[in-house]
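Thread: sanity check for a docking pose with zinc ion

Original post by kr_44:
Hi all, I'm comparing my docking run against an independent structure prediction. Below are the sequence and the ligand SMILES. Could someone generate the full complex and paste the structure tokens? I mainly care about where the ligand ends up relative to the chain.
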Amino acid sequence: MHEMGICDGILSAAIDAAERSGAKRINSIEVSIGELTEVIEDPLQFAFDVLRRGTIASDATLDVTFLPARSVCVDCGKEFDHGRFDAKCPSCGSLVARLIQGRELRIDAIDID
Ligand SMILES: [Zn+2]
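Reply from moderator J.T.:
Ran it for you. Here is the predicted complex with zinc ion included:
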């Protein structure tokens, strides 16, 4: 499952950043994940629960915000949310759109002591 690798990346980056700030422990990590990454919350939380053991994040929570896929229509400029295979402009019906959100994998905040 690719959540294990993604979680490993998130956790490593968070621990790096926290340790550079002199943290003794991490209380929570807030992340934003685009829906097009196909990350699913349950396996991500499971991976986090396994990977955090023995680190300064061993009691931390992982707070995930999922971001819907969003595109801007190249023909009329409208921004709209859509599914994975359904990026048709609801305003003018154009199928030509540029993706502006949905592939994020971003740490927004790390709460440390
Ligand atoms: Zn349009």
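The domain at 2-112 is CATH 3.30.2320.80 (hypothetical protein PF0899 fold). Hope that helps with the comparison, let us know if your pose agrees.
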